[in-house]
Design goal:
Helix content is 45%, strand content 19%. The protein has 295 residues and is an alpha/beta fold. It folds into two domains: 127 residues, Quinolinate phosphoribosyl transferase, N-terminal domain (Aldehyde Oxidoreductase, domain 3); 152 residues, Alpha-Beta Barrel (TIM Barrel). Strand 8, helix 8 and strand 9 form a beta-alpha-beta unit. The model has no long low-confidence stretch (mean pLDDT 97). Belongs to the NadC/ModD family.
Length: 295
């Protein structure tokens, strides 16, 4: 079971998505409302046109329910054939929707946009999770997400077998190069965060071995090893690990310039994680369709 989405967030994002498509609340669908009788009902199949990992099916019921409520039309029943996180082949039926045709067609693009986007992220994540299986390393996402859809895309990462890093700027402190410049040093930046927000985890980005060791000396317990060539990354991991008898366990993440082809090579350096912005900022959608079928 994939850890779920906050219901209030789903309600809000579906409301905004529908208003964008319908031109307001309630809005209108000038084609469907002109050509289809209110009393007309149908069955529709949600199907995958491509092989991949599905995610976002949890929003389908909310989309059709909100359309029904906006226009005072009958409810659509949704029967899921698969759960989020399932691998599917092209042509696989994912769900059966039964109800007023107007509702089905007014909801169609919104539910497909959300589910296709999430499924694309889940599919991209699964490729990384499969490549890292057995290596001891885990793939992480980043904050490079579609504005307004972060919760859905990070949910999709979980559905694809990945792990969420921080959700935003509020839950974990991440000292990066610009913070170091502003504070004067890695040590000063870590100390400033600790003083201001003693309750949060502090992560530090390091571009060199010296920066990594300075961060550990300053008390950081999680390092982002950024854009390091494999030999430098391996040496940095070894140096940090050598001091763990004194410092305690340090979590190490490789980030920047990561590809599936390099995944096993990077994992062999001994890092715990690899963060991949492309899981969310570059994943193509998984092509899904909603097709009316004869009763």
């Amino acid at each position: 079971m994939v850890p779920g989405l906050d219901h209030a967030w789903v309600v809000d994002v579906v409301r905004r998505t529908l208003s964008e498509d319908l031109g307001g609340d309630p809005g209108r669908d000038v084609t469907s409302q002109a050509t289809i009788a209110v009393s007309s009902g149908a069955v529709a199949h949600l199907v995958a046109r491509q092989a991949g990992v599905v995610a976002g099916l949890v929003v389908v019921h909310e989309v059709v329910a909100q359309v029904s409520a906006r226009f005072g039309l009958g409810q659509v029943t949704v029967e899921l054939d698969v759960q989020d996180g399932t691998r599917v082949e092209a042509g696989r039926r994912l769900a059966v929707l039964t109800g007023p045709v107007q509702v089905l067609l007014m909801a169609e693009r919104s539910l497909l946009n959300l589910a296709s986007r999430a499924s694309g992220v889940a599919t991209a994540t699964r490729a990384w999770a499969d490549r890292l299986d057995g290596t001891g390393a885990t793939v992480l996402d980043t904050r490079k997400t579609t504005p307004g859809l972060r919760a859905l895309e990070k949910y999709a990462v979980r559905a694809g077998g990945g792990t969420n890093k921080r959700m935003g700027l509020y839950d974990v402190a991440m000292v990066k190069d610009n913070h170091v410049v502003a504070a004067g040093s890695v040590t000063a930046a870590v100390a400033a965060v600790r003083a201001a927000f003693p309750d949060v985890l502090v992560q530090v980005e390091a571009d060199t071995l010296d920066q990594a060791l300075e961060a550990v000396a300053a008390g950081a317990t999680f390092l982002l090893l950024d854009n390091m060539p494999t030999d430098v990354l391996a040496a940095t991991v070894a140096a940090v690990r050598a001091g763990e008898a004194t410092t305690g366990r340090i979590e190490l993440e490789a980030t920047g310039n990561l590809t599936l082809d390099r995944a096993a090579e990077v994992a062999r350096t001994g890092v715990d994680y690899m963060s991949v912005g492309g899981l969310t900022h570059s994943a193509p959608i998984l092509d899904l369709a909603l097709d009316l079928v004869a009763r």
